Amino acid sequence: MQMHESMLLSMIDAVMAIVLIEGIAKHINISFKHKAIYVVLTSLLIATSSVIVESVVLSQLINLTIFFVSSMFYLRVNKERDLVTNTIVFFLAIVIMIVVQLLSIVIMNNFIENFNYTFVNGLMAQVLGLSIIILIIKCIPIDNMYVFIRSKSIMFRIIVTNIFVLLYFISMLWQIEEMHIVESITIMIAIILLVIFINVILMKEALISKVYEEKLLVYDTYLPIIDDLMEEIKEKQHDYHNHIQTLVVLNEKKNNAFSEETKNYLNKIQENEFWKELMKIDNKIIAAFLYSKYLEAKEKNIEISFEIHNLLIDSKHTNYELVEMYGILIDNAIEATEREMQKKEIVIRSYKSGGSNIFQIENPSKFISTSEINKFFQKGYTIKQESSKGIGLYKLRQHLKSTGGTVIFSYDNLRKTVVIEIEHS
What we know:
Layout: H1 3-24, H2 32-52, H3 56-77, H4 83-111, H5 119-139, H6 145-150, H7 154-176, H8 181-254, H9 260-271, H10 274-278, H11 284-299, E1 303-308, H12 319-338, E2 345-353, E3 356-364, H13 370-375, H14 392-403, E4 406-412, E5 417-424
Parallel strand pairs: 1-2
Antiparallel strand pairs: 2-3, 3-5, 4-5
Helix pairs in contact: 1-2, 1-4, 1-5, 2-3, 3-4, 4-5, 4-7, 7-8, 8-9, 8-11, 11-12
């Protein structure tokens, strides 16, 4: 195959890689100029290597190295600096690309008699493969796999890596024995499906184990806090007796139940009554979780008040899932409030509406437009510190969508506060 032919086929490979990488990590948004540079340079280097290096195996390894290095630079342009995460994204993109290319060859073989991998046939197969990939990106939410990649799941990374190695090894065998590609394709597909099936089983078991580990972590984290909360309640009950006696003395002293001294004293007592609201919650794990967030906010000089009207949180979600969902909202509220210079107050409300559970958080904030609110739910979008990944609200909305729940984000101009609530069954 001549250099210009090899370069044209390689350019389509590079375009496929871009489409898949941006389909997996949808927050990546690189200019057309950088995309064009990536496609031209990558295809030029691969075509040059294919022409100069005679050994098929060596040429394939060099081409893979060129593809990998150029893809890493491509991702770094978008400030994706985690090499391991970028590598798994690359592996996953190549896996999908190889499977699609294999599928396109099967389709071409059914339409072209005595199919051989010539330049023209290869070009048609590549164009067909690119069309299939674009269709996959449009119709299948492959970006959901990015959550597993970002979560640094060891099992997921192992599975993606070994599938990549297997498929690339098979593609090298095809290159060595081009004449037998059509004859051996059925066997190759069977091997691939078997490997994918085995890895899906492994992944399923790993996910189940991970869920149980996370549930145990929730209980290990919050059961001791429940003990602390109960201990504080006992102390408060004892203190209340003393408070009541003091109020009696103050009333007798001033002969005025509404004196400033009495009011100040009552206000001071009410400031410490948050625990009475938490005790209304029948779910002790959630009560302990909210108590821990109260303590966390207090350390940052942020006041959290609770308005609990939903005494029994009867939900189809597990305690772990509720803690994760509520935690995303509370952590965002604490971080946003911490940046405020004056009013540092957060209000957390829990109530029932039409048989659904409503969890609402209100915190102070500068003005936020509707267009910016919509961006908050995009994967990767964040106004937080640089280390933030910007997938909390995106993950929350995706989870609620899958369970029939909703999340509503609004801005109150009058009180200059952000109000966000989730509704779930």
